[in-house]
Design goal:
The relative contact order is 0.05. The chain is built from four helices and three strands; from the N terminus they run E-H-H-E-E-H-H. The protein has a three-stranded mixed sheet, with no helix packed on it. It is 9% helix and 4% strand. By secondary structure, it is largely without helices or strands. It is rod-shaped.
Length: 395
């Protein structure tokens, strides 16, 4: 197959055509073309509808020199601007069989443009070029908005108006920060919001919710309900110190059983409301839940179960809620074998009768060695009665 391609030939450097008419695309003005032989019956049969006369010269025919008036081409000028566009198959029986003549001298075949102006010289006329100042012979327009891809500021999003309010050369229709200049269009977290206007640059948050209004989105704000712009996070648990109920102890779940505002991992009274977190004896238990708040007792042993730890209970093995210690010997009246007489050693070795030797009348006499004073004897008897009465009550 032989193709005869007939292209335009522009008359000046601005890619314009100064010819009035060039139907056969040979760059010769219609008035300068060879006259046809009107004695030829084929030439007489081809009448110009505009004048009613036979076509006068070779401009109206394909290769008049070779074929005469056999192939008129006026039908290839659809927009009637004097330039042709289309293809003409030459029959096999012709002198040049299996040949196709292709006319490409009209750069806008469907739109009248006699001067064929082509600012970017891409062989697509200005009146039909979708990128007037950009060379784009293929005229690709992916988003079908009438603007060619090579000059479309949003080639994949329809935007016939080409609005670009921030002047970053990316149209508003596809700009991930349409009101903020960001030519790089960087979007680290891939949430379709540019880093330049994203309140969580590394955390996807398309809705940009910012409850506390501190310019940090809730998704990445260490304190989403606190408007502190910069917040320390000493324990690195993702919560800022100002809103972390244990700022020095990792506690992502922020558990707080007693709801006192101090998280369980750092609460010195996990099950007791203790907002002040006072620990007078420094035994890591707050005074509110320490059974000996003034004496360090990490184990919190409470043998008699009266709520007082053994370390500070004057009667650790006897329930003694009032903690009376009349003789101030460190042994509570409820368990003191001499409640009115100081005897911290609780010695009862003389007769083992449950009354300490310090106040036992029999022990004091010692087989006539010495007499107990009446006052001491009376005090011992009274104490003995009190002690036995309390022991009876506790059983």
């Amino acid at each position: 197959m032989i193709l005869a391609l007939l292209f335009p030939a522009f008359a000046d450097e601005n890619c314009k055509n100064d010819l009035w008419q060039d139907l056969n695309c040979n760059s010769i003005e219609v008035y300068d073309e060879t006259l046809v032989d009107l004695s030829d019956p084929e030439c007489l049969e081809n009448i110009d509808p505009a004048t009613g006369e036979p076509y006068p010269n070779a401009d109206y025919y394909y290769d008049y020199t070779s074929f005469g008036c056999l192939y008129p081409i006026s039908g290839f000028d659809v927009d009637e601007d004097g330039m042709s566009y289309g293809s003409l198959p030459i029959p096999p029986e012709a002198t040049f069989p299996d040949k196709i003549a292709v006319f490409l001298c009209d750069n806008c075949p469907d739109i009248y443009n006699r001067d064929q102006s082509d600012l970017d010289c891409d062989d697509v006329g200005d009146v039909c070029d979708n990128c007037l100042e950009f060379f784009n012979t293929d005229q690709f327009d992916t988003d079908l908005d009438g603007i060619g891809d090579v000059c479309d500021i949003c080639p994949y999003w329809p935007d016939p108006g080409q609005e670009d309010h921030d002047f970053d050369s990316t149209g508003d229709a596809c700009d991930n920060c349409p009101n903020l200049y960001n030519p790089s269009q960087a979007d680290t977290d891939g949430d379709l919001l540019g880093d330049a206007c994203d309140n969580c640059v590394v955390t996807p948050n398309g809705d940009q919710t910012d409850t506390d209004g501190d310019s940090f989105g809730d998704e990445c704000d260490r304190c989403p309900l606190d408007s502190t712009v910069t917040t320390q996070d000493r324990d690195q648990d993702g919560l800022g110190d100002k809103c972390d109920n244990c700022p020095d102890v990792l506690n992502v779940d922020q558990a707080d059983v007693d709801e006192d505002g101090t998280g369980d991992p750092c609460d010195d009274c996990v099950f007791t409301w203790d907002p002040d977190q006072v620990d007078g004896d420094d035994d890591e238990l707050g005074d509110q839940c320490d059974n000996c708040p003034e004496i360090a007792n990490f184990a919190q042993v409470d043998t008699d179960g009266d709520g007082l730890g053994d370390e500070c209970d004057v009667c650790p093995e006897v329930v003694d809620l009032d903690q009376l210690d009349t003789d101030q010997d460190g042994i509570g009246d409820a368990c003191d074998n001499c409640p009115a007489v100081p005897n911290p050693d609780q010695d009862d070795s003389s007769d083992g009768d449950g009354i300490g030797d310090a106040c036992d009348s029999f022990s004091l006499r010692g087989g006539g060695c010495r007499d107990a004073s009446s006052a001491v004897l009376l005090a011992s008897l009274v104490a003995l009665g009190v002690r036995r009465r309390r022991q009876t009550q506790t059983r």
